[in-house]
Amino acid sequence: MAIIIKFIGKSIWGKKLRTFLILFSICLSTALLFSSLGISQNIAQVYLKQIRSQIGEAEIVIYANKESPSRYFRTNQAEIYRDQLDYIIGTISKAGVYQVAANEQTMVNLLGYKLEELQRMNPLVIQQQYSLNPFQGNKIIINRVTADKYQLQVGDNLDLKINDQLHRFTIAAIAAPEGLLTPGTTGFSAVVPREALATMIGEKGRVSEIYIKTSNPADIEPVLTSLSQQYSRYEVEKTITESELREYTDVIRMPFMMMLILVCLISIFVIYTAFKVIIMERMPVMGTFRSVGATRAITNRILLAESTIYGVIGGILGCALGIGILYLMTYSLSSNPWNEAPPDVQLTYNPVYLGISLAGAIILSVFSSLIPVMKVYRTPLRDIILNTYDNQGGRQKNKTIPALIILALILAIPPLLPGQTAGILSIGGLIIGTLAIVWLIPPVTEIFVRIYEKIIPYLFGNEGILAIKNIRNNREMLNNITLLTIGLASLLLINTISFSVGRLVSDVYKDLKFDIWVYHPQVDRSLESQIRSVPGVVSSLGLYEINQVEIAGSTEKIGTVYGIDGNRMLDYLDFRLQGDAEQILQQYSSVRSIIPTTFLKEKLNLNIGDMLTLKTETGEKDYRVVGFAGTIINNGNTVLIPAKYVKSDWQQRYFTYLWVKSDADPADVSQSIKDKYLRDNVFTITKTELQETNNQSNNQLFVLLQGFSLITMLIGIFGVFNNFVVSVLTRKRSLAVFRSIGMSQRQMVKVLLVEAMAGGLIAGVTGSLVGGFFLVQAGYSMFAMNLPIEIIYSPPLFMEAVVAGAIIAVLASLGPSRQTARLEIVKELKYE
Amino acid sequence: MEDIISASEVYKSFYLGDVKIEVLKDINLSITRGEFVSLMGPSGSGKSTLLYLLGGLDKPDSGTIKVKGRELSAMSDKEASRFRRQEMGFIFQFYNLVPNLNIEDNIMLPVLLDGQPIKKYRQKLDDVLAVVGLSARKRHTPRELSGGEQQRVAIARALMNDPEIILADEPVGNLDSKTGTDVMELFKHINEEAKKTILQVTHSEELAQYSHRIIRLRDGKVWE
User: Which phi and psi angles does B163 have, rounded to 5°?
Assistant: First the structure.
């Protein structure tokens, strides 16, 4: 046994480059497996942390809604449950105005707290203070960013206008720009004594929100029910719900899982090809072992033990790397641009994930090596001992027809199935399709070789002809093409989706024809007409928005219902109505009608004239489908309903928001509206700003995904490099023959580089085709995830992939080519 | 007759670990144009090493080797490569055909490497194939040929560029006696009809009888 272990150890150590490649592939696959498993938990943590930075550990929140008698209320009804609660913290918020200079003012979000309560729920990090305690009267705490921006120091006075009254505050402390005082996009937040602020606005003894934490989490539900009865006209809800968390994490987790599949496929291929060479090298030794009495089982065990060792080492390294990757991902999602200090990232992961990842690494390694090992198992003893087994193997079966049938089925079946099923199938299709594509590489290469035969001799002379002849039936070259194909395809997949999502966002905003979005909790006709009087405002449209509307008799929900007037609709949005727009709008205005998007048409299998029953505030209502809209706003999960029906069916007293058109610079007009209605807490944002915010949040995810796809490519490149080394090793004798019959070193380098370039170009083209296939599959999956993204196939991106294939292959072959050119001819020729 | 190959005070050694093994010691020989010479000696006597030195596949530690009046050691890699493909043909015991090229391509290799247009050599290819008796097998791959046939392909390849010198390292060592005799007859034919100078390494006294002269090596020295 000791001899065998020593043998395995020496074998692994003897081929450091190959050992590195195998371990590298296993390590990265394990790391991605671990980080994909752990990402949900950590994204949830980041999400929770963002929420917790505002509300601490509070579990229940009470606040006023549109039906509440007042925005302010008392905490005494909650005090009844004090025994069951850890804390009940009331807070009051109000907008103020800080006159920075004669012609400059900014909004201040004033947050009234009892300091001791705030420090208990969500502590501020006080950096400087001046007579902070007792926290009463006109004291104020601002953050460091605000202090630096307006050159304010502790002890300075700060004059703020609240409800048109000027109040002088003293800066009692400067806190770190985090948590409650994290800087936002407009104005700044500040903490003031709760009672002082309540008194200033005439609401003494009242609060605008109550945050509650129970002593025992098991009491959350009963307390929530009791409080809902006590505060029947207010919103009483959990601060964070499970479904909210799952929805948030699923969208991020799914793409990582798809990347993981690709990385595993590429790793399997790398390990499989590496093991084929290992087996080839080990055959004579296996023969020796067998000749001295070792059974087949023992020789198999030796080979499988070697792959298990790779799995264990690669798995351990991969888990360590996975923790690092997970940390980096979480770090990038947690980073706060306002805080110089690094974000406080607390990595959490289930230890079981480490076990799963390690087991995954071992399975990956052993499974990938199984086929080559089985070859030894099947080889007759005589051939092993005499070293007369067939190195090249038999002629490969032609699998072109089965591969084409599989691909045709994978592409044809999903459109015939319902969205959800198609989505699940498409992930399986991704794996099976990749295998089918691997089968197609030899015939595709043969086609290319025939094309090359017509072109390459003119470009590279006789060395070119020789290079083409070497590509044909060269297994290492086919392996290289396969590895590069999968690597390039995964890069194309991620880049195209990222590009398509960018285009989607931009297209969505093209559908919207307003310039400024205006929000206020109580937008009515009066406020609308006032806003119209702001210089630069040309017109406005008030609309209703209801989210997550249930469909009667179905588990499906409509993401967003827009209540919008039919006669003014086309002035504000271009939802690309399918068919005769005039006729659709005529019907839309005359009956209780509904216009779903084409995405919902497909998902819910709707036709014109169908009735869609929605659950509204006033019961279930039937809406007649009068047409379909081609928009992808809210990922296409949207319907339009005439404003009057939304108003009556959902009992809406106010518009949800206003869309405003302007004939001046929207940014200036937006600022003018803000300035005019500063004290009314009117929020405005231009369409461009909305689009940028959307792009930024998408970019954060895509940067991470691109990182993953680069890792996939990196494994692919290492695999290609390894294959070139292997290719040279296995062809050393042939190459020495070339040298013996008069090939110069320069000619040899030229032949090998032309070979690599030609193979790389094939991989570039096949990579582009496979990338296209992956994108079709990804399209189905995303449709199933309610993300109907129109994939934009960018020809330049695909062209870049073709060129990249050639460049990568040439670069990977440079070292081996130069080394080979210097081989010792006699030594290689005498080798028997 | 004029010397086509000559070696003077040639030494060659290898390192086996830290131990220096002197394979060839003070080798002096000459081969005249049109001669058929056999190089004989026991295993490890340095026959193959000497053959490779004379063919320019390796360089001596010291001494001079001249082929057709040119000193091989003084040539650059480019010159030596061109010299090998134009002036010499090599035949090895294990044939050393390129497995993924068919017979035609294997034979055409020296032409390809010489940068010559292949089309011009179609007739020559057919002629050479006829000489070795493999006209019907040119589209086959080496795997589909017997040992004797593979060695004939190697001979055809060696003849393709019409070199004056053929160097063969145990050319029938891997063949049965009948096939070996056929191949040796072919060598004799090439030597007599095509006037090629042939230097073969062999263990067999019987096969050596096909040559005009035998050079014997023992312990790295010419024993003749």
Answer: -75, 160
A825/B118 touch (CB, cutoff 8 Å), yes or no: no
Angle made by CA atoms A52, A57, A59, in degrees to the nearest 5: 105
Categorize the per-residue pLDDT at A333 as very low, low, confident or very high, splitting at 50, 70 and 90: low
**Cβ separation of B48 and A830 shorter than 8 Å?**
yes
Asked if pLDDT for residue B136 goes beyond 70, the answer is yes
By C-alpha distance, the chain A residue nearest B50 is A826
- The residues near A600 (Cβ < 8 Å, ≥ 6 apart) are A558, A606, A636, A637, A638, A639
* pLDDT surpasses 60 at A687: yes
Listed residue (A94, A303, A318, A334) closest to A194, CA to CA: A94
Whether residue B115 is contained in a domain is answered as yes
Q: Give the C-alpha distances (Å, rounded to integers) separating A228 from A24, A83, A220, A239, A447.
A: 56, 18, 12, 14, 72
Nearest chain B Cα to A465, which residue? B112
Burial class (CB in 10 A: 0-12, 13-18, 19+), A468: buried
Contacts with B69 (C-beta within 8 Å, 6 or more apart), sequence order:
none
Q: Do B78 and A744 touch (CB under 8 A)?
A: yes
Q: What is the DSSP letter of B94?
A: T
Residues β-bridged to residue A62: A210, A236
B191 within a domain of the structure (yes/no): yes
Measured CA to CA in angstroms, residue A27 lies from A316, A317, B143 at distances of 8, 6, 40
Q: Cβ–Cβ of A742/B82 closer than 8 Å?
A: yes
pLDDT digit string (tens) for A518-577? 888 778 888 888 888 888 999 999 989 998 888 988 878 888 899 998 888 888 888 778
Burial class of residue A243 (count of CB atoms within 10 Å of its CB; 0-12, 13-18, 19+): exposed
| Domain presence at residue B2 | no
CB pair distance less than 8 Å for B100 and A472: yes
Q: Is the dihedral of CA A229, A230, A235, A237 positive or negative?
A: negative
Q: Which residues in chain B have Cβ-Cβ distances shorter than 8 Å to A739?
A: 57, 81
Of the candidates B57, B82, B111, the beta carbon closest to that of A825 is on B57
Q: Are A182 and A338 in contact (CB under 8 A)?
A: yes
Residue B211 in domain: yes
The residue to which tokens 């044909």 are assigned: A472
| Spatial separation of the C-alpha atoms in residues A605 and A603, rounded to whole Å | 6
Instruction: With residue A62 as reference, give the H or E element that holds it.
Output: strand A60-64
**B-chain residue closest to A832, CA distance:** B94
Q: Residues of A at the B interface (Cβ-Cβ below 8 Å)?
A: 392, 461-463, 465-466, 469-470, 472-474, 733-734, 736-747, 824-826, 829-830, 832
Q: How close, in Å, is residue B84 to chain A by CA atoms?
A: 5
How many residues would you count in chain A?
832
Q: What is the predicted pLDDT for the residue at A382? A: 67
- Report yes or no: A764 and A713 within 8 Å, Cβ to Cβ: no
Q: Where are the domains of chain A?
A: 1-52+251-394, 59-238, 442-510+687-832, 521-681
Q: Could you count the other beta carbons within 10 Å of the beta carbon of residue B202?
A: 25
Site from A445, A465, A471, A741 to mutate, B interface, most B CB atoms within 10 angstroms: A741
Which CATH number goes with the domain that contains B158?
3.40.50.300
Q: Do B101 and A744 touch (CB under 8 A)?
A: no
Give residue B131's domain range: 34-47+76-222
Q: Is A110 helix (H, G, I), strand (E, B) or coil?
A: strand
Sheet containing strand A657-662, strands side by side: A611-616, A619-625, A593-596, A638-641, A557-563, A537-550, A657-662, A516-519, A683-686
Whether the predicted pLDDT of A508 surpasses 80: no
Domain count of chain B? Answer: 1
Q: What is the pLDDT of residues A80-138, one digit of tens each?
A: 888 888 888 889 988 888 887 766 778 888 899 988 888 888 888 888 888 878 888 88
